Amino acid sequence: MDIRVEQLTAGYAGHTAVDRVDLTVGSGQVVAIVGPNGCGKSTLLRCVARLHQPRSGKVFAGDADVWELRQRDAAHRIALLPQAPQAPEAVTVAGLVRYGRHPHQGLFRQWSHEDEEAVTRALEATGTTGLADRRLDQLSGGQRQRCWLAMALAQETPIVLLDEPTSALDIGHAVEVLDLVREVAAEGRTIVMVVHDLAGAARYADTLVAMRAGRIVASGPPREIVDADLVRELYGIEAEILTATSDGTPVVVPTVSVPPVAA
Fold it and tell me: Topology relative to the membrane, per the entry (predicted)?
């Protein structure tokens, strides 16, 4: 399922965080949104997920305006894994992943064999089956993040939004999570993720969306848009752009700080 954002503007208490943004994400793509802190990345994601009401503009998931859908219907199309999610105390991994089936429950539809199968598939896809009976708070950061992703996958939506899925992870666990993201997209789901690590975003995303001061300043395949000028505009630093010998991915090597470009 594709995503279309049209002239979206959103903010908080007089501050505009997202300013007239247009964005199209094709089905089955991995899109990484990058940019400095406070540039509007997470606000944009929250607007798509129906968690932050935009001031103006439209957000479409497939053929439907998500803000005109009932919340339950939107949750059948879009799953969000937020920053720093909170779990109930002492919840097991299996218990956490079952929360992903909440949008499918209702007064006349209780827990079913279909729900159990969805949980099993999500655990298998994330390599967490062996952790199912463990408490979430007893796991490593990388294991916990895979379990949270399993919960999002159990929702079985065609669109999955991830807000900084690799934050606070070491490089090994970050690569593990991003490899998993690619596997999920290969099954046909559309993935949009906010990522701070420009190198990781460039390696794993089909499309890179660069934001600054609430606007999209560049968008396209990483090999086409990542250059020294873009790094300077986003982060106010000079950098050399190298090319990975294995796959041609751009590699950003910072050199010296410069004053940030005026918004």
Answer: Peripheral membrane protein
